[in-house]
Design brief:
The structure holds two protein chains of two kinds. By secondary structure, chain A is mostly helical. Chain A is built from eleven helices and two strands, in the order ααααααααααββα. In chain A, β1 (about 260-265) and β2 (about 270) form a beta hairpin. In chain A, α9 (about 210-245) runs antiparallel to α11. The radius of gyration of chain A is 28 Å and the shape is elongated. By secondary structure, chain B is mainly α. Chain B is built from four helices and three strands, in the order αβααββα. Chain B has helices at about 1-30, 35-45, 60-70, 95-120, and strands at about 35, 75-80, 85-90. The chains are: A mainly alpha, B mainly alpha. The interface between A and B is medium-sized, with 32 and 24 residues.
Chain lengths: ~325, ~120
């Protein structure tokens, strides 16, 4: 005979199995909803300890069979693509719903990238990742060392729980950021924590949970990644904008009657005419535009790769 | 016979897809205070399998609530409770209140159309 708690746990396991094939984030949302409902219901309907098992059976019966519930979530997932319709499946689903062809949502051609919200999202993400990465890293390292240091004292346990919980919380927030900017579907509910457990038990759950440590790893790795993303993007953008601005410099040189000296070394000098100099700056500007477009492609690509990485580390199985 | 049962079930599911959204939005718009999933489930799913009035399992209202929230018709917030786990409270937004008026109109039209057809009006 299973206890009430085991019944709830086994229902959740079955639900997870029934949801196989659905998006990981949907699975996490569905499990959070189910656990919240079942435990709240049990809390409300708990009459006497003997009847607890029957109560849970009735509650689960009313909640619905796993297959039915799993199907409801899968339908919901198909009808509501994530913010930028990043997954091919979601995009197909939404275009089928809107009656538009999938091709309408792609951005063809080399310069089409400027119309793609995911490229701009990736660009913003790369630029802010230096700040978020630094914050995450500092927090992750401070939290872990403080927790370890206080472990020998009683106060160490609540402090450690708070820090470990903060990893989960930050992982959830970063997930929202990743979905908003990079368009990858991430959990919309923070994962469920059972508040009926004692502190020591909660600590054990948090310490042994894979999600806690993967979130921590993500926070630590965000510093080097943030530095790379930021430096790369700033360098390429500065180069592109500098080149695009050269015709302005050329115009200023002409108005101030400064000659276009391309080479000026010792007695070797090669001076262009004003029109020749201006033409050269236009070539530079065109090159700048190409590099800027390349930067947008880079941002979109990095965004795509990073969202896979974030999903692997921040969304628990 | 089993196949027929499946067909009935499928028909009911398709029929309930939109009406559940309407019912949930209406419940939350009429309720003066935010409600959490379990309370809403009690209101909608009251009854058992024998009662034909039950259109939706309690567990199936959560994806609908989420979808209404994504559309901006509901808002929700998570609150700690004295006993048991934290609860997510849902309430209708202003957009939700407005949408409900239109939905009710659509529902009335649908209802009278179906009633007329079933009553042989189009014969």
């Amino acid at each position: 005979m299973k206890t009430a708690d085991e019944l709830i746990k086994s229902y959740l396991t079955d639900l997870k199995a029934a949801l196989s094939g659905a998006d990981k984030a949907t699975v996490q949302d569905a499990l959070a909803d189910a656990e919240e409902h079942l435990r709240t219901a049990l809390e409300n309907e708990r009459a006497e300890a003997e009847a607890e098992v029957e109560t849970v059976q009735a509650i689960i019966q009313e909640y619905g069979e796993v297959d039915e519930i799993a199907q409801a979530y899968k339908n919901w997932e198909a009808a509501l693509p994530p913010a930028l319709a990043a997954t091919p499946a979601a995009r197909r689903a939404s275009s089928a719903a809107n009656g538009t062809s999938p091709a309408a949502k792609t951005y063809p051609g080399f310069f089409g990238v400027f119309a793609d919200p995911r490229a701009w999202g990736g660009l913003v993400f790369m630029l802010i990742s230096l700040v978020t990465g630094t914050l995450y890293f500092s927090w992750a390292v401070t939290a872990l060392s403080t927790s370890l240091g206080l472990m020998i004292l009683i106060i160490g346990i609540p402090v450690t729980i708070l820090f470990l919980l903060s990893f989960r919380g930050i992982a959830f927030l970063e997930g929202r950021l990743v979905e908003a900017l990079l368009g990858e579907r991430m959990p919309r509910r923070a994962s469920f924590t059972d508040s009926s457990l004692s502190w020591v038990e909660r600590l054990k759950v948090l310490l042994t949970g894979k999600a806690t440590w993967l979130s921590w790893l993500y926070m630590v790795l965000m510093l080097p990644l943030g530095v790379i993303y930021f430096s790369l993007m700033v360098t390429v953008l500065a180069l592109a904008l500098g080149l695009i601005a050269t015709p302005i410099a050329g115009a200023v040189m002409i108005s101030m009657e400064i000659p276009f000296q391309v080479i000026h070394s010792g007695d070797l000098a090669w001076t262009l005419s004003n029109s020749g100099g201006l033409l050269l700056t236009l070539v530079f500007a065109a090159l700048g535009v190409v590099i800027a477009t390349g930067a947008m492609h880079l941002a979109r690509w990095v965004g795509k790769v990073h969202s896979k990485f974030a999903k692997a580390l921040l969304v628990s199985d | 016979m089993v196949e027929l049962q499946e067909i009935h079930k499928k028909f009911q599911k398709e029929l309930s897809a939109g009406t559940v959204s309407l019912a949930l939005l209406s419940i939350l718009a009429q309720s003066g205070e935010p409600l959490y999933g379990y309370q809403i489930g009690k209101l909608v799913g009251a009854g058992d399998d024998d009662s034909p009035g039950v259109m939706v399992k309690q567990g199936a209202i959560y994806p609908v609530l989420r979808s209404l929230e994504t559309q901006g018709l509901l808002s929700s917030q998570r609150e700690m409770s004295d006993s048991g786990p934290p609860r997510r409270y849902y309430q209708a937004t202003n957009t939700g209140q407005e949408a409900l008026q239109t939905w009710i109109k659509i529902w009335e039209e649908t209802k009278s159309f179906v009633d007329n057809v079933l009553g042989g009006e189009y014969q």
